[in-house]
């Protein structure tokens, strides 16, 4: 496959956005990666309240490149206590990787409990990746909550996010050691979801555990 030229189309506070000329392909690059943006924990805490929502989210989606900076854990703790659901989702992976296990687990579970109607797959993935002894129980509880949601089987032009969260939650439960056969019945139902996007995501995430889905 030949290379596709993607000129820079926009630049946020912490991210550069590239799009192909036909706008069918895009790519984002964190400005923390090349050092064109910098921030300290003190600056973040001082400036965060004056940022627009888009700038806060831009930071959260780009800040993983700050891993290794001495005060990065302080930034993560600050956002987990002062941010919102989209912010928590954006930094969930960094929280799991860069904070002590018990602290990361507690912060992520708190965020999951406070989450309302947003997709929670990133939080579920991060909770699983902490490898905390209580992670399976938290994920089981999440799956049962999702499975009882009234909109679980609604069709959608793109994705039913509740069903998507249920699919990824099953994947995360398997990753923390729960036998795949425990979820076979649920996977069969998700594999026949009314929404095509959900049927596709179910196959994409779970076929490796359920070869009969091919």
Describe this structure in words.
This protein is mainly α and 214 residues long. The protein has a domain at 133-214. It has ten helices and three strands. The protein has helices spanning 41-47, 53-62, 72-82, 85-98, 101-114, 121-129, 135-147, 161-175, 184-190, 196-206, and strands at 8-11, 15-19, 26-30. The chain has a three-stranded antiparallel β-sheet with strand order 1-2-3. A hairpin with a 3-residue loop joins strand 1 and strand 2. The model is unreliable at 1-7 (pLDDT under 50).
List keywords for this structure.
214 residues, mainly alpha, three-stranded antiparallel beta sheet, 10 helices, 3 strands, 52% helix, disordered N terminus
Task: Give a quick precis of the structure.
The protein is mainly α. Helix content is 52%, strand content 7%. The radius of gyration is 19 Å and the shape is globular.
| Helical fraction | 40-55%
Give the SSE string. Answer: EEEHHHHHHHHHH
Q: Please report which band the strand proportion falls in: under 5%, 5-15%, 15-25%, 25-35%, 35-45% or over 45%.
A: 5-15%
Name the strands of the widest sheet in spatial order: 1-2-3
| Low-pLDDT sequence parts | 1-7
Query: What is the number of strand segments?
Result: 3
Cα-atom Rg, whole angstroms?
Answer: 19 Å
How far is the first residue's CA from the last residue's CA? 26 Å
The profile of the biggest β sheet is: 3 strands, antiparallel
Q: What's the average pLDDT?
A: 91
Structural category is mainly alpha
Silhouette: globular
Number of helices: 10
């Amino acid at each position: 496959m030949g290379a596709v030229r993607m000129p820079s189309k926009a630049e946020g506070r912490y991210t550069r956005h590239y799009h192909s000329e036909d706008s069918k392909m895009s790519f984002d690059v964190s400005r923390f990666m090349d050092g064109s943006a910098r921030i300290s924990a003190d600056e973040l805490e001082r400036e965060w309240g004056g940022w627009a929502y888009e700038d806060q989210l831009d930071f959260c989606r780009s800040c993983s490149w700050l891993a290794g900076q001495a005060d990065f854990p302080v930034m993560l703790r600050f956002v987990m206590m002062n941010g919102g659901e989209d912010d928590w989702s954006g930094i969930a992976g960094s929280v799991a990787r860069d904070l002590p296990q018990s602290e990361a687990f507690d912060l992520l579970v708190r965020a999951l409990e406070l989450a309302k109607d947003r997709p929670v797959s990133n939080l579920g993935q991060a909770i699983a990746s902490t490898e905390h002894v209580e992670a399976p129980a938290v994920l089981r509880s999440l799956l049962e909550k999702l499975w009882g949601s009234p909109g679980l089987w609604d069709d959608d032009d793109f994705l039913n996010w509740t069903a998507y969260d249920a699919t990824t939650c099953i994947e995360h439960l398997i990753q923390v050691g729960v036998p795949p056969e425990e979820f076979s019945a649920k996977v069969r139902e998700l594999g026949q979801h009314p929404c095509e996007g959900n049927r596709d995501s179910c196959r994409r995430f779970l076929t490796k555990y359920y070869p009969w889905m091919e």
